[in-house]
């Protein structure tokens, strides 16, 4: 929890310190349980690599998701935590770690489908306000919902703006077909209140 939030909460007239401490304890216990599970997975992976233990497919998939989360934390964690707070980042990480193989595959497929439809739309000279723009925004909304704690139209619109204002996002979307980032931003801006 950020310092601003803490100050705001504790200075409220109806602040219940016992309830706040209980809630904080639950959050800490959840983090501890998560860390214990990570430690166990890493230990199993080491034993598996030494030939001392055969990991099940489920354990391998869990280790894979943990690696994905860890790499994302290393690459973007500090920036995301600064912008959106620990709670949002932790919730997104939990959602990824809790995904089944089918859910993770759907998440990956959504990202790929968005990329393909964007490229087709830009190559074909489509208008972001046309039906193809609506379809892309609907897919994008579903894709965001796979990792966001809570979807809001305002946050979706803000992400759309990032796609053209942050060079990293722009480069990602425009990597194969120039104009995809702008198309996605324009489509989100037009359709976000309609999907």
Automatic annotation (TrEMBL):
Alphabetic keyword roster: Coiled coil
Domain named TipAS antibiotic-recognition: residues: 76-191
Top-rank lineage group of the source organism: Bacteria
Ranges in coiled-coil conformation: 18-45
Alphabetized InterPro entries for the sequence: TipA-like_antibiotic-bd, TipAS_dom
Name of the protein in question: TipAS antibiotic-recognition domain protein
Classification of source organism: Bacteria, Bacillati, Bacillota, Clostridia, Lachnospirales
